[in-house]
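Box 4.2: Ligand-aware structure prediction
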Amino acid sequence: MTRVLVLGGTNEGRLLAAEMVSLSIEVVSSLAGRVSSPRLPEGETRIGGFGGVDGLIEYLESKRISAIVDATHPFAQRMTANATAASRKTGIPLLILNRPAWQPTPEDHWISVPHLTEAAARIAEKPASANILLTTGRQETAAFAALPQRFWLRAVEPPTGPLPQHCEIILDRGPFTLSGERKLLEQNDIATIVTKNSGGPMTAAKLTAARERGLEVVMVERPPLPAGVPVVQNVAAATAWIRKI
Ligand code: NAP
């Protein structure tokens, strides 16, 4: 019998788990445990790291998992690397469910950068009086900590790392509305947004609001996917893959 491990922490992970439950396919969703009150998927759930590749292999074997879907966030690079290594060692098939990246329109003013250090270097070029909205995650503030600009840091949980001297924390969780994003940018006179290219509709409204205001967006592009692992972009395609196992 098929027993699927869904590595989650995303809306797609939740939707896939719900689909598995509705099709009576056995599913366990795994969450990292970073968020104190996560939105739990339907079906069985486990929370917390596995203990690296070896811990993951032990889990897969003890729970008799027959397929893995890595539906983690496109920037959760370590979990994806661990799942790839565990799949190679055990022969348990792995699929990556990776939602499409956002694409700029001709009206957008994006500066695409390969990583957060480069994003911080671009912000360092701005006047010290510039107001910056930072939505790259609470664990990844260190690159911006020495900068003099005024930051609005939006995250689901309070940040743990070093923060810029001028930094207001906005604790909030998507989905975000266009009217809410317009208000946030206008009220705080935001000049530039720094974000990761997460893709998906839940957090895309800020890009529309930025476009309307002609604002610059420093877009951190995604890390590369592992070679040789099949990738799909939506829940329907992941379900079709699982049904063929
Ligand atoms: P990461 O750097 O790729 O993973 C670090 C470690 O966290 C992994 O080695 C693993 O620990 C554990 N881990 C990560 N995802 C897990 C999962 N789904 N189930 C069990 N353990 C998991 O991950 P991250 O970027 O910190 O992201 C953590 C979680 O938040 C992911 O589930 C991801 O989908 C979600 N998320 C991430 C972002 C982001 O921007 N990175 C944004 C939104 C949501 P062990 O080695 O001990 O197994």
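In the box above, the bound molecule is NAP. Helices lie at 11-22, 52-62, 77-90, 116-124, 178-187, 205-213, 235-244.
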